[in-house]
Amino acid sequence: MRRIRHRVPWPAWIPLGLASVLAGTALAAPAPAQAAATTAGAVLDAAHSSVSWQSPVYAKGTGGGPEKCPAAADDPDGKVCDRFDLTVSVPDGYWDDNPEGGIPLSIKWEHPSDDFDLYVYDDHGKQVASSAGTADPEATVIPRASGAYHVVVVPYDVHDNSFTGTAYLPATTDAGDLTAFSGGDGSYTVRAGQLAARTDFLSNGQLRIQADPSGSLSDPAGDAIVRKQPPLQRHTSSFDAGDYYGIRSPEAVLRVYKKPLRFGLYKPDNRTRIWQEDKPLRWSTGGMRQSLARGADEQFFGGGEQNGSFSHRGRTMYVANSFDWNEGGYNNSQPFYLSSAGYGVFRNTFAPGVYTFGSPVTTGQQERRLDAYYFLGDAKQVIGKYTALTGKPFMPPVYGLEPGDSDCYLHNANRGERHTLDALKIADGYTEHQMPLGWMLVNDGYGCGYENLEQTAKGLADHNAQLGLWTQDGIDKLADQVKAGQRVAKLDVAWVGNGYKFALDACDAAKKGIEDNSDARGFVWLPVSWAGAQRCGVLWSGDQKLSWDYIRWQIPTYAGATMSGIAYNTGDVGSIYRHDAKMYARDLQWKAFLPAIMTMDGWASDITTGKPADQQPWLDGEPYTSINRTYLQLKERLLPYMYTLSAQAARTGVGAVRPLWLEYPDDPGTLGAQATYEFLSGPDFLVAPVYEDSDTRDGIYLPKGTWTDYWTGRTYEGPTTLNGYHAPLDTLPLFVREGAVVPMWPKGTTSWQTRDRHELDWDLYPAAHGTSHYTLYEDDGVTRDFTKGAAATQRVSVRGDTRGTTVTVGASRGGYTGKVDARTYRFTVHGDTTPARVLLDGRQLPLSAWSYDATRHVTTISTPRLPLDRGFTVRLVDKR
User: Fold this and answer.
1) Are 814 and 792 in contact (CB under 8 A)?
2) How confident is the model at residue 37 (pLDDT cuts 50, 70, 90)?
3) Closest CA to 628 of 441, 406, 407, 403
4) Which CATH architecture best describes the domain 756-878?
5) 39-48, 315-324, 662-671, 807-816: lowest mean pLDDT where?
6) pLDDT value at 549 more than 80
7) Is pLDDT at 17 greater than 60 in this prediction?
8) Using DSSP, how many helices (H) and how many strands (E) does the chain show?
9) Of 210, 238, 364, 592, which has the most beta carbons under 10 Å away?
10) pLDDT at residue 448 above 90?
């Protein structure tokens, strides 16, 4: 029998006016819960601020989710799964300015070694909240709760264990008037009654504000997210402006208003607002929010991975772990956002949060304290400063940018008994069909083991691929596995718990486990994470079912993740559970322009027949095999471009996959509905995926400038919108920016290891007038020697004028293991005019060394082998 406990009195710290409103709208207190025959329940309202209940003792678990629970009528005593009904009665608007944004709900186990999972459904049967990891307590929030809810707790893996459930209705208190102000040399303390606050001005245009109504400041996150505190900016001074105290630094002025205490950040002129609190800080039972005035045209981005969106003005953004892999989910969310007003904010906490970008902007975290870092600058500068604080994106091994393949080969419940070495037969298929393969996870399934690791690793190496393992058996096994040849680690729910600190620690530990036991770079994948995960792993958006909608909503998801410094974010090619040849091909096309991709095999069924369907890219036959091969080989050829973007991300924090707004922030069209479902791969490629069952793509938005159709050579002048673009199944709408300089490996390349190191191709899109520049980055691709300076760069400039085009290739500066002394170059130069002649360092090249394709308007030039320690110039001279 469940034991239910209500806390009846309304909290003393709730504002009296709100208490009166709530009292006037309260439901009558419920009758005592009935035992056995009915589901226990309780009401949260003005008369009942919290409730707790005790579950029965469960001898064993279900080994599954809520689908393992019988109907309530068949389980009246909750002997299989626990059920609890919760009714929430609050007045309209109650949640509009509440730091916690909903009803906090948690279950704490009597014996924390076991595992209960928590699910919440509304009165229509829709799941509205969940917590199904391995954390204790499991905790979630019922967002903007009002009405009846049904809580289901599943004893997933328990042994004679029970739990205590709790829920409460958070009420609020606001900061009062300023009562103390002091400080100097970059650090200032503030008090408003019992509320203590401190403002620290930090180097490089950063500010940290901490506040706590307990009267003392703490730092629960410690150094788990922020690895190294920036030094204080000591060149500050304060002044009394009457209504507020001002603190001036070289980069900004912070206003500390007196009645009531509020903060506002202004540019050095102390007139131009960066951000301004419109109301004082507000805290609740277990949360604190900041409220800011919203600018007339202010836009908001960030929040980590927010499935289905990249910009958030007018939206509510959740920062937590929802275990919702689909549109609207936020498993890889981060407590960070940036504003077009020239700032960004990171809340230094592992607590969930709710950010509403309405008017005003309210950002609440489920932690009764504020610890916020503010970064000044444009979007790229803010991303750079945020990632400097929490960790720059890691530098992947080059094979990590090649396609990956995942399946279970030992004890596979979906595909029958197999052996780990059977993975080599799949690797044979990639080789036979001339499709790149960088790595394979060979135990990717629940209950799947492995055997013959060294032999498997060697067999994969013969196919130029690396061995990867899912960490089902624990991160502590990595040492022996890495010594046997493992170079890729994939985390999963079993090893990241409820997200937050456990997820981040697991990511850091897995990366370290590879690096401590080899000379390789750690390469880790994870589906649940937190701020800082960009420093250690590839994030993927989880387990989805295939549909055209699945393809659609992922597009802004991965572009938007870049706005939080997440340089590697992706989803399973073709999803995990269902397969369709056409949708798979469409999905693979555009994901070829993401840095990291993976196929998930062994789990899917054909969308039409329902029969098991593996998802290797050749299995659907023609024309799909050829189409998939084309895009995988194009991805491979573009690896010098993508690898250079990775090196830039490790330095700047800005990843390759970008919403158009990031490169064109002054163009309102980049925030429109049409631009939502396209992205930039680096600054140069505009990708507009086909996400419908159609051979036509409408609504392709091209920003200002000249854009070249990658396939036809046709040019378009932006800003413009293309409708009716012909995109049969083999055509991904793909456009290249004027001025682009794109390095490529030779045609036919299928592996970074077997590429012709003595040839490098350059695809050039000269501007009619002006000069563009590009700096290629190269290193050995696999070891960490680059951190010691073992790398090379080569600068290329392209200048167009009235008489032709000049390509200037500089010497390759720097060295690394495997660097060649000389190489040939193959240039493809896009332009409408057939050259009269082509010169190499002033000498005319023979006609056999170059040609012009009038259909695609491309001049192709091949040079002899040239030494890398010297630069050279190629000149295309127009006929006129």
Assistant:
1) yes
2) very low
3) 403
4) Sandwich (2.60)
5) 315-324
6) yes
7) no
8) 13, 60
9) 364
10) no
pLDDT digits (tens, 9 = 90+) for 356-367: 999 999 999 999
- Burial letters for 47-56: b for 16+ Cβ neighbours within 10 Å, e otherwise? bbbbbbbbbe
R_g over Cα of the chain: 29
CA–CA distances in Å: residue 125 to residues 118, 140, 151, 566: 15, 18, 11, 34
Query: Which residues 6+ apart lie within 8 Å of 594 measured at CB?
Result: 558, 569, 570, 656, 657, 681
Fold of the domain built from segment(s) 173-293+343-376: Immunoglobulin-like (2.60.40)
pLDDT tens, position by position, 708-730: 999 999 999 999 999 999 999 99
Helix, strand, coil share (%) of the chain residues, nearest 5: 20, 35, 45
Is domain 41-170 annotated with CATH 2.60.120.380? yes
CATH number for 398-654 (one of 1.20.1600.10, 3.20.20.80, 3.40.1740.10, 3.40.50.720): it is 3.20.20.80
CA distances from 370 to 210, 214, 217, 561 (A): 5, 12, 9, 24
The answer on pLDDT for 35 being more than 80 is no
What stretch(es) of the chain map to CATH 2.60.40.1180? 658-735, 756-878
- Straight-line distance from the first to the last Cα atom of the chain, in angstroms, rounded to the nearest whole number: 93
- How many C-beta atoms surround the C-beta of residue 598 within 10 A? 25
| Inter-axis angle of helices 581-591 and 624-637, nearest 10 | 10
Strand, helix or coil for residue 657: strand
Q: At 4, list the tokens.
A: 């239910």
Residue 836 in tokens: 């009269």
Across 118-141, average pLDDT: 88
The pLDDT score that the predictor gives to residue 413 is 64
Residues in the chain: 880
Q: What residues does CATH 2.60.120.380 cover in the chain?
A: 41-170
Query: Where are any strands of DSSP class E within 11-80?
Result: 40-44, 50-54
Task: Assess contact for 456 and 485: CB atoms under 8 A.
Answer: yes
Write down the pLDDT at residue 529.
87
Half-sphere exposure of 354 (CA within 13 A, CB side): 22
State both tokens at 606. Answer: 């054909």
Q: Tell me, what's the pLDDT at 476?
A: 84
Residue 499, pLDDT score: 53
Q: Which residues contact 768 (CB under 8 A, 6 or more apart)?
A: 800
Give the whole-angstrom CA distance, residue 547 versus residue 830.
37
Torsion of CA 521, 527, 528, 533, to 10 degrees: 30
> How far is Cα 530 from Cα 334, in angstroms, rounded to an integer?
5
Q: What share of the chain has pLDDT > 90, as a percent?
A: 84
Pairing of β 679-681 and β 605-606: unpaired
- What's the whole-number mean pLDDT along residues 49-65? 94
Structure tokens belonging to residue 878:
């127009």
CATH superfamily for 658-735 is Golgi alpha-mannosidase II (2.60.40.1180)
In 565-672, where do the E strands start and end? 569-570, 578-579, 598-600, 605-606, 657-658
- Label residue 768 by pLDDT band (50, 70, 90): confident
Say if residues 139 and 83 touch (Cβ distance below 8 Å). Answer: no
Please, which pLDDT band fits residue 493 given cuts at 50, 70 and 90? low
Give the per-residue pLDDT at 562: 98
Percent of the chain with pLDDT over 70: 95
CA distance 384 to 650: 10
Q: Delimit the CATH 3.20.20.80 region(s) of the chain.
A: 398-654
Distance CA(61)–CA(879), nearest Å, equals 80
The DSSP symbol for 878 reads: E
Which amino acid is it at 393?
P
Query: Is this prediction's pTM over 0.90?
Result: yes
Q: How far apart are CA 501 and CA 485, in angstroms?
A: 29
